[in-house]
UniProtKB/TrEMBL annotation:
<dbReference type="GO" id="GO:0003723">
    <property type="term" value="F:RNA binding"/>
</dbReference>
<protein>
    <submittedName>
        <fullName>Putative ATP-dependent RNA helicase DHX34</fullName>
    </submittedName>
</protein>
<keyword id="KW-0067">ATP-binding</keyword>
<dbReference type="GO" id="GO:0016787">
    <property type="term" value="F:hydrolase activity"/>
</dbReference>
<dbReference type="Pfam" id="PF21010">
    <property type="entry name" value="HA2_C"/>
</dbReference>
<feature type="domain" description="Helicase ATP-binding">
    <location>
        <begin position="169"/>
        <end position="329"/>
    </location>
</feature>
<keyword id="KW-0547">Nucleotide-binding</keyword>
<dbReference type="Pfam" id="PF07717">
    <property type="entry name" value="OB_NTP_bind"/>
</dbReference>
<dbReference type="InterPro" id="IPR007502">
    <property type="entry name" value="Helicase-assoc_dom"/>
</dbReference>
<dbReference type="InterPro" id="IPR011545">
    <property type="entry name" value="DEAD/DEAH_box_helicase_dom"/>
</dbReference>
<dbReference type="Pfam" id="PF00271">
    <property type="entry name" value="Helicase_C"/>
</dbReference>
<feature type="domain" description="Helicase C-terminal">
    <location>
        <begin position="368"/>
        <end position="536"/>
    </location>
</feature>
<dbReference type="GO" id="GO:0004386">
    <property type="term" value="F:helicase activity"/>
</dbReference>
<keyword id="KW-0347">Helicase</keyword>
<dbReference type="InterPro" id="IPR014001">
    <property type="entry name" value="Helicase_ATP-bd"/>
</dbReference>
<dbReference type="InterPro" id="IPR001650">
    <property type="entry name" value="Helicase_C-like"/>
</dbReference>
<dbReference type="InterPro" id="IPR011709">
    <property type="entry name" value="DEAD-box_helicase_OB_fold"/>
</dbReference>
Length: 1035
């Protein structure tokens, strides 16, 4: 197809004028197959189905009109200027199909069409008429696109930020830092990068807190700037990018820009850096602000633009003063009526906190809306509550009310719901019915739901905080900030005038904090501080944070990095610390990946790391439905939760690898799994693998298409074509679906019948990325085939998670399973999570009568056994009480001697103290001495091999031998007792320095490379970096 000016010789009369009255039954729809072969072999149109829809509508329209037979009308004559004397709408079409009617007619099939189609054959005139109709369709689509573009430009001009376009450009040119405080909906995220690009800035980086925002914004800006088919606008997230040397606007995550700071020369590839959504105060965002402040002093040509809604203007302006210029852009909200309805309960009057949540104030608001606003007035309700328990209470109460009035659909919304259930909130309520969405703060900023007219705000939020001393994450309820309350209120005015009901008083609102607490004050700082040291910052304590964390948290994080071996005592980066700084994962998971590469267990460790990194695949139904629990019984493992998750991932992969397209969705549903989590695991595993490849810890050995046989390549090419076609069809059909919510059971009813065996787009994406061979490799790599593999997997996991250990309380044998308590180093009296394996099967942690060893001459009070166990866990979570999360059981003495940081012994090794809080006591001192000598040898060999591995000088034979020796060590059976030391014990257990000069002659049996010296803290002799001999008082 090409464009040209039309002449009289090209004129084709209107299609309806050429239809003969005796051919009114004729329709091109009867000749689809023939016409597609004639016209659509050259990608003339994007969507053939859309063409036929146009033809159907056009023919239906022309049948309703009187068709004038113009067959006897002589051909129109033209004037000397070759202009037709009679106007025809076809003259307005500035398009032409490059093939003539004769060329197109020559493509008609030679077989007898009358026999095949039971209709007359197509003639040259039919071909000419269809060509004319096709030109009309193409002209229609062109005008449709132009109208979209015109509407787009009108929308851009109508955005509030457009009024500040020239001011923003001028400020960026004149000032080093520009702070743009733009309210929600003003258009700052999409428009300002375009303004800067059009103003002449050629290298613009725009950061976003979330990967999905990078992708969506880049696509939107590319669409608006007509750059969809080039690389002027791109995005870059880890392992995925659409960027080249011509890219002018790049959207990327905050974390990725931080990594570029480490690798690039002062970010010289950018002349403008835009930091968006800085009001969210994420960990990386605050760190990036400090890095940018330092960069401004080193690069005089760099420009920095900060953008946010509900920003603390004074704080940011002061932080960058005197370099900053502030521009405030109003939002585009409709009027919102604000009403305060404080909740006054009997317990509140008495000054006590009620144990039970009362949903009745929320139901009263629904009743008030029913009375005040007629049903025919559209407008849904969005309720903000603090947590899942509160949401459940309101949903249950609201559904009871709905049984009486039958005019509401109640939908919960929180992050632990499946993605399908979450998507229901975007669907439409039937006529005369309103949606009531009962949500956590996920609906405050993360998602926008159209049609919200009423907001009900409880004023509460549950936030996670972190205690760096006890290493406990706490989920507790707080009042929201004023900024968050205003954000919630704004949700009522996005599409029309709205009402916000606040279930608290105006005085309570005034007492709220102005802004939310930064994430920097609430999360572990280990990974952040490690990255700072890796960047070459001399002293993390002096870094210019906009709001510095507490000094105690920084010190605890530095101490934690030393414990993990990432920093030396002098706070310098160690080889393993350098490697960990290059892995954008939590420190424990990073250590697991490194150790997995050392012991040739990387494939199962990769799978284990990814299942522990994503949100739990268990849905709410998983532990409420007995059928789900029974269906999962074959996945259970008495080794602990991480192995159960690995088993679930393995079985899911087995379904994907069987080649029979087994319905994995049904498999997940029956077991209470959210399948999306398994797809996330496979993507994350791929990312981890590429990371290790980048760091030189693993070579990518996967076979590509060139390694396949010709038959395998042909088969894969055919499979890929089929999958891409399925994905395209699904995308087209999905765009036409209109989902309507049912009143009964709040299920989704689609106009297109959707069955369980319908196309699963996630499965298609998975199979596009993985052929059958790759899926089988993935399955093999996610399986601990033998006892040796399983034991090594547990050792590697323990090495990463240490010092996350828990010991059982001495009195657990006298209690029920739900009452069992455990103690950690920093937090005593913690419980097993009720949804964990050990929370329901704690008997496997108890010693049986046959495992107890009776030693008559032993005077200790504790039970002697060779089967004592400790729990290694991922984290501690405190809600109503502190819970152990994702735990694994390990042999006590062996685990402590292999991993603890300080081992202190008495003179004959009968007593050993590990990390100053756990004591091992051995009835046979000689056996204890042998055990500790063996542990020392294993630790020394481990350190040497790890050093070689990090220097890319692996010794595979020695690594294999070490793994076998460690498994034998873990299975050593020697009787001992284990107990937690109390504060009173810790005051009297060490002898302390003697003050006398200590001499030691002879070889050091614990370390060939360590010079024996007196321990100036505990007393006794320091025999290795982690072992002090004869420093204990006998007690």
């Amino acid at each position: 197809m090409y464009r040209e000016k039309r002449t009289h010789s090209d004129d084709i009369k209107h299609h309806s004028k050429h239809q003969k009255t005796d051919n009114r039954a004729f329709t091109f729809l009867d000749y689809k197959r023939v016409l597609e072969k004639v016209f659509f072999n050259d990608d003339l149109v994007e969507d053939i189905n859309d063409v036929w829809l146009f033809v159907k509508k056009f023919e239906s329209f022309t049948l309703k009109k009187t068709i004038t037979d113009s067959s006897d009308t002589p051909r129109l004559k033209s004037n000397p200027l070759k202009l037709p004397e009679v106007f025809d709408k076809m003259h307005l079409i500035n398009l032409k199909i490059k093939y003539s009617d004769d060329e197109l007619a020559s493509r008609l099939p030679t077989y007898d069409q009358e026999k095949v189609y039971q209709k007359r054959p197509l003639t040259k005139e039919d071909i000419s008429n269809f060509r004319q109709l096709l030109l009309m369709y193409m002209d229609f689509k062109q005008k449709e696109k132009f109208n979209k573009l015109r509407k787009l430009r009108e929308t851009q001009i109508s955005l509030p930020v457009y009024q500040f376009k020239n001011e923003i450009i001028k400020a960026v040119k004149e000032y080093r830092v520009v702070i743009i405080a733009g309210d929600t909906g003003c258009g700052k995220s999409t428009q300002i990068p375009q303004y800067l690009s059009n103003a002449g800035f050629k290298r613009i980086a725009c950061t976003q807190p979330r990967r999905i925002a990078c992708i969506s914004l880049s696509k939107r800006v590319a669409y608006e700037s007509l750059a969809v088919y080039n690389n002027d606008v791109g995005y870059q997230i880890r392992f995925e990018k659409t960027v080249n040397k011509n890219t002018k606007i790049l959207f990327l995550t905050e974390g990725l820009l931080l990594r570029q700071v480490c690798g690039e020369d002062l970010l010289s590839q950018y002349d403008v850096i835009v930091l968006d959504e800085i009001h969210e105060r994420h960990l990386h965002g605050d760190f990036l602000l400090g890095v940018m402040k330092c960069l401004l002093h080193q690069r005089s040509d760099i420009k920095l633009v900060l953008m946010s809604a509900t920003i603390n203007v004074d704080l940011f302006n002061k932080y960058f003063s005197p370099l900053a210029k502030l521009i405030q852009v109003p939002g585009r909200l409709y009027p919102i009526k604000l009403e305060y309805h404080p909740v006054i309960s009997e317990m509140k009057v008495l000054g006590k906190k009620s144990e039970r949540f009362d949903p009745s104030p929320f139901i009263k608001i629904i009743q008030m809306i029913d009375k005040k606003y007629p049903k025919h007035e559209r407008g849904d309700v969005l309720m903000f509550l603090s947590g899942m328990a509160e949401i459940t209470a309101v949903v249950d109460a609201a559904r009871v009310y709905c049984e009486k009035v039958d005019s509401w659909i109640i939908l919960p919304l929180h992050s632990s719901m499946s993605l399908g259930e979450q998507d229901k909130v975007f669907d439409y309520a039937p006529e005369g019915t309103r949606k009531c969405i009962v949500s956590t703060n996920i609906a405050e900023t993360s998602i926008t739901i159209d049609g919200i007219r009423f907001v009900v705000d409880s004023g509460k939020v549950k936030e996670m905080s972190y205690d760096s001393t006890s290493k406990v994450q706490r989920l507790k309820e707080f009042w929201v900030s004023k900024a968050s309350a205003d954000q919630r209120k704004g949700r009522a005015g996005r599409t029309g005038p709205g009402v916000c009901y606040r279930l608290y008083s105006e005085d309570e609102f005034e007492a709220m904090a102005e802004y939310s607490t930064p994430e920097l004050q609430k999360v572990p700082l280990d990974a952040l501080l490690l990255q700072m040291v890796a960047m070459g910052l001399p002293n993390a304590r002096l870094f210019p944070f906009i709001e510095p964390p507490q000094a105690e948290n920084i010190e605890n994080a530095i101490e934690s990095l030393k414990q993990h071996g990432a920093l030396t005592k002098e706070e310098k980066l160690t080889p393993i610390g350098n490697m960990l700084s290059r892995l954008p994962v939590d420190i424990p998971l990073g250590k697991m990946l490194i150790m997995g590469s050392l012991f040739d267990q990387l494939e199962p460790v990769l799978s284990l790391a990814c299942v522990l990194s994503v949100q739990t695949p268990f849905t709410n139904k998983a532990y409420k439905d007995p059928e789900c629990e029974r269906a999962r019984m074959d996945l259970e493992s008495d080794h602990g939760d991480p192995i159960i998750l690995l088993n679930a991932f393995k079985q899911w992969l087995e379904l994907k690898s069987d080649g029979q397209n087994t319905n994995s969705r049904q498999w997940c549903k029956r077991r209470g799994f959210e399948e999306q989590r398994f797809y996330e695991m496979t993507k994350l595993r791929r990312q981890f693998k590429d990371l290790l490849d980048e760091c030189g810890l693993k070579k990518n050995e996967e076979k590509n298409m060139d390694d396949m046989t010709s038959a395998e390549r042909a088969l894969r090419h055919g499979e890929l074509k089929l999958l891409r076609d399925m994905k395209k069809i699904h995308k087209e059909e999905d765009s036409r679906k209109r989902k309507v919510l049912k009143k009964d059971m709040w299920e989704i009813e689609e106009n297109l019948d959707a069955e369980d065996d319908s196309v699963d787009i996630r499965d298609i994406d998975f199979r596009l990325r993985h052929n059958q061979r790759q899926v089988k490799q993935l399955l093999k790599g996610s399986t601990a085939i033998s006892y040796k593999d399983l034991m090594m997997l547990k050792i590697i996991l323990s090495s990463g998670l240490y010092p996350h250990l828990a010991i059982a309380d001495d009195f657990n044998s006298c209690k029920t399973t739900k009452e069992h308590l455990f103690h950690t180093e920093g937090k005593p009296f913690v419980s097993l999570h009720p949804m964990s394996y050990f929370g329901n099967h704690s008997d496997v942690l108890q010693l049986t009568e046959s495992e107890i060893i009776y030693v008559p001459e032993f005077k200790g009070k504790n039970t002697v056994s060779s089967k004592h166990q400790l729990l290694v866990y991922m984290s501690l979570l405190e809600t109503t009480k502190a819970y152990i999360m994702n735990s694994l059981r390990m042999p006590a003495a062996q685990t402590l001697l292999l991993f603890c940081r300080n081992i202190c012994t008495n003179q004959n090794f009968s007593q050993i103290i590990c990390d100053s809080w756990l004591q091992l006591e051995f009835p046979l001192p000689e056996a204890a001495e042998c055990l500790i000598l063996k542990a020392s040898k294993l630790r020394n060999t481990w350190d040497k091999l790890l050093k070689l591995k990090l220097e890319e000088k692996s010794n595979r034979r020695a690594e294999h031998k070490l793994s076998e020796e460690m498994i034998r060590f873990m299975n050593v059976e020697i009787g001992y007792t284990v107990k937690r030391l109390l504060a009173a014990d810790q005051k009297i257990m060490y002898a302390g320095p003697s003050g006398d000069k200590v001499s030691f002659t002879g070889p050091n049996p614990f370390s060939d490379e360590w010079q024996v010296c007196e321990d100036d803290k505990y007393g006794g002799l320091r025999m290795s970096p982690y072992l002090t001999y004869d420093c204990m008082m006998n007690f």
